[in-house]
Specification:
Layout (H helix, E strand, L loop, with lengths): L22 H12 L9 E2 L5 E2 L5 H4 L27 E7 L5 H10 L4 E5 L5 H7 L10 E3 L5 H14 L9 E4 L1 H8 L1 E2 L3 H18 L4 E6 L1 H5 L4 H21 L4 H5 L2 E7 L3 H21 L10 E6 L12 H14 L4 E3 L12 H17 L13 H23 L3 H7 L1 H18 L34 E2 L11 H12 L5 E6 L3 H16 L4 E3 L7 H11 L3 E5 L2 H17 L4 E5 L14 E3 L5 H12 L4
Parallel strand pairs: 3-4, 3-11, 4-5, 6-8, 8-9, 9-10, 10-11, 13-14, 13-15, 15-16, 16-17
Antiparallel strand pairs: 1-2, 7-12
């Protein structure tokens, strides 16, 4: 059983070098290591308000919920007793109308991809046939991207009927997602309730002739792309699922049949533990929904598809995206995802090239075939941290589901604007965390490389983003986390002369290096080159070097002792030498006798975006 510690090593533990330590002894050791800092400072919060503690134990977290066994209620540990022993479906997404798509699809399938997703699939039968020429449709499922039209669905099914002798083996997902399309575009052809009914009737017909096709996509990544929290993303996807259960059962399907028509897509982000917990929580919540609807969760499992989060992908230093997607894919696999799509590292720049596609599929293949991560059934089971995080996230998602149901469901929450407002609150909180760098993005708001050579890719085809129908609600924005920093970097890169800031380092290298390194890193996240040096013995020498640098902005970097002795003198000397803005590397309560000459402070936790915007205005002008 998870966390079962009954099989302890017997005998005298001291004989083999083991000692028993309780929580109190750990707490004492932790407090000593923190050197006066409060232990509570190690507790962090997610955007759902879930507290993540520094230590989880059997005594404090082990008896809240029984996660059961793999394949049994509440399905925390997987929908099947064998887990994903045979691996997950390795998917790759392609833009159907891009030149060379057929060759890329065949290359993917020849090299380990087991499922293809088409975006912007053509409605012309011959054109679709040419895109999928050479693809064995009865062994390699071709899925349609969420938000696909009825015409696209009819065309794909017609092609499958022609090429497949036994349509019962088809297990495509048809991408019906009018809610997600409404959220992304703000438009729909029909009133949303009418469109849902129309789709449900079509699904009922398809299910009779193609029993293993899943028609409906519950695309949680729609909400994640707009900045939603993990609990909001999952809760909204569950609300959409409840809506479809009602519509599909009204169209004549049983509850089990209706559930089998749904595939839930969730974003897999860079937070490994939170992502794993989200996929486990999804099964727990869905089992509760089915039970509340009068069904047996064992007969109505939910197919889970993971797509690595588009919101975490960066334009700058895009190679780091490979680390992000690897972590995300690994986390989704640990959580028991049935299918995974890895975004290519260069996808934020446009259409991925062949290298990007190859690396994306190989990320999955290495994790699946070489690390054998899927060979272990529920590898995170028994971790008090993961079990508690799963439980807390399930509660957060359920709370969101209840709030949406109180407003009349996800569709009404969208058309009323209340759901957009809820996500906007979280998006604002995310932006604040990015600005003060409590959320770090390597290459964007941390460790930038302002000398990097940018990559360039073909733009996304317009056909893939065209919206149709009448305006029904305010569309959700797309929020890539690194975008605010990238905008500043772009402005600096395109300036007639790259903006620069002078680091007025005082004392020996060992005295100023920590703060000068911090300041350099901070300013260069906005594309502002920081002119570093080994330090100056006196304020006049620092001011003289500043005057020779041609800079207009300076940042004083040194120790608290130097600040108390000569911080004000240095600031005054820099001002006399022509400094228009003077920053000090340290907190606002730094020991400087007067701050009259200091325009701002840079320190861990400050609003970096505000600092960068001020410097940009001074050096480049209004943006």
């Amino acid at each position: 059983m998870p966390g079962d510690d009954s099989h302890r090593i017997s005998g005298d533990e001291s004989d083999i070098g083991l000692e028993h330590h309780d929580y109190a002894s750990w707490e004492a050791a932790a407090n000593a290591a923190l050197r006066g800092q409060d232990l509570s400072s190690l507790t962090t919060q997610t955007f759902d308000g879930i507290e993540r503690e520094p230590l989880y134990t059997r005594e404090s977290h082990g008896s809240k919920n029984d996660p059961g066994l793999p394949g049994s209620s509440p399905f925390t540990r997987g929908s099947r007793a064998a887990g994903n022993a045979f691996g997950w479906e390795v998917r790759q997404t392609h833009f159907a109308l891009r030149d060379g798509t057929n060759e890329r699809i065949l290359a993917d399938l020849d090299n380990g991809v087991t499922g293809i997703t088409l975006r912007g699939a053509p409605t012309d039968h011959q054109l679709l046939a040419s895109v999928l020429e050479g693809v064995s449709l009865d062994s390699a499922p071709v899925h349609l991207a969420p938000g696909s039209s009825l015409e696209q669905i009819e065309t794909l099914i017609a092609l499958c009927n022609i090429q497949c002798d036994d349509v019962s083996v088809l297990n495509n997902n048809l991408g019906l997602d009018p809610i997600g399309l409404l959220a992304r575009t703000g438009r729909s052809v029909l009133e949303i309730e009418e469109e849902i009914t129309q789709c449900a009737n079509l699904v009922s017909q398809i299910s009779k002739s193609h029993p293993n096709i899943q028609a409906i996509a519950l695309d949680g990544s729609t909400w994640a792309d707009a900045g939603a929290s993990d609990g909001q993303e999952l809760g909204a996807a569950l609300s959409t699922g409840v809506m479809w259960l009602r519509a599909l059962t009204a169209s004549g399907l049983s509850l089990d049949e209706a559930s089998q028509q749904l595939e839930l897509t969730l974003s897999a982000g860079p937070d490994q533990f939170l992502t794993t917990a989200k996929f486990r929580a999804a099964r727990v919540c869905w089992a509760r929904i089915i039970s509340a609807s009068g069904g047996d969760p064992a007969n109505a499992p939910l197919t889970l598809h993971a797509t690595t989060a588009r919101s975490m992908m960066t334009l700058n230093d895009p190679w780091v995206n490979m680390l992000r997607t690897t972590t995300a894919c690994f986390a989704a696999a640990l959580g028991g995802a049935d299918a995974v799509t890895v975004e290519p590292f260069d996808s934020a720049a446009g259409l991925s090239d062949d290298t990007g596609l190859r690396l994306a599929r190989n990320t999955q293949l290495i994790l699946q075939e070489e690390t054998k991560v899927s060979s272990v059934i529920d590898p995170v089971g028994g971790s008090w941290y993961l079990e508690e995080l799963t439980n807390e996230l399930a509660h957060a998602a359920w709370k969101t589901l209840q709030q949406l149901e109180k407003t009349g469901g996800i569709a009404r929450a969208l058309t009323s604007g209340s759901w957009q407002a809820s996500i906007a609150e979280t998006r604002t909180a995310r932006l604040a965390a990015l600005a003060d760098r409590s959320t770090l993005i390597t290459g964007a708001n941390e460790f930038p490389d302002i000398t990097e050579v940018k990559i360039h890719r073909e733009p996304i085809p317009q056909e893939a983003t065209t919206s149709v129908g009448e305006h029904k609600c305010e569309p959700l924005p797309t929020f890539r986390w690194s975008a605010p920093f990238e905008e500043l970097r772009d402005a600096a890169d395109s300036a007639a002369q790259r903006p620069s800031i002078f680091l007025a380092n005082l004392g020996a290298v060992i005295t100023h290096t920590a703060r000068s390194t911090f300041a350099k890193n901070l300013f260069e996240t906005g594309g502002i080159r920081a002119l570093n040096n080994d330090g100056f013995e006196t304020p006049p020498r620092a001011a003289e070097a500043f005057a020779s640098s041609g800079c207009k902005v300076a940042c004083i970097c040194s120790s608290d002792d130097f600040y108390s002795e000569s911080g004000l003198e240095t600031a005054s000397a820099l001002r006399a030498a022509g400094a228009e803005l003077i920053y000090l590397a340290g907190p606002p309560d730094a020991p400087i006798s007067s701050t009259t000459e200091i325009d701002g402070f840079v320190y861990r936790g400050c609003n970096v975006l505000d600092v960068l915007a001020t410097v940009h205005r001074a050096l480049i002008g209004p943006g």
